[in-house]
Specification:
There is one protein chain. The strands form two sheets. This protein has a two-stranded antiparallel sheet with strand order 1-2. A two-stranded antiparallel sheet has the order 3-4. It has one domain. By secondary structure, it is an alpha+beta fold. A hairpin with a 4-residue loop joins strand 3 and strand 4. The mean pLDDT is 82. Helix 2 runs antiparallel to helix 6 and helix 3 packs antiparallel against helix 6. The relative contact order is 0.21. The radius of gyration is 19 Å and the shape is elongated. The chain has six helices and four strands, in the order αααββαββαα. The N and C termini lie far apart (46 Å). The longest helix has 35 residues.
Length: 157
Amino acid sequence: MDEVTIHGLKELQYALRQLPKELQGKVLTQALWDGGKSMIADAKARALKLNESQLPHHVGRGKELVQPGNISRNIMVRRVKHTDATATVSIGVRAKGKGSGNAFYWRFFEFGTKFISKKPFMRTAFEAKKLATADAIKLALGKRIEAAAAKLRVKAS
């Protein structure tokens, strides 16, 4: 799994720790969610360029129908881990579900098969947007900390 570690956040980390512990993880999750939007948009744009009609209409388990744009619609961010003081999110393709919610075949394009040449869209989006996403997370984290602190000040008044 590819990942980005953000360094140099001492001031933001200090400010985050000034918040009550039960708010820290929530603020982190929201900032990660906000920061990942540009990477998701890039991956979706790349996925829309895939030719899903290259796949047979009845692929895989139970003859699910392959619909154009299905991979793009199923790229999402999800919370993987969340505690009071930490948060982890994952950006990927939802590959479970029934009908149009199932884009299990995304990996055929991402990694290629014997019959389909690889056309990576998730990895290329990650490489293209990882630095911009890290900067967006820093910015979002600062804004989310300020908003949470302002709410606490109002509540305390």
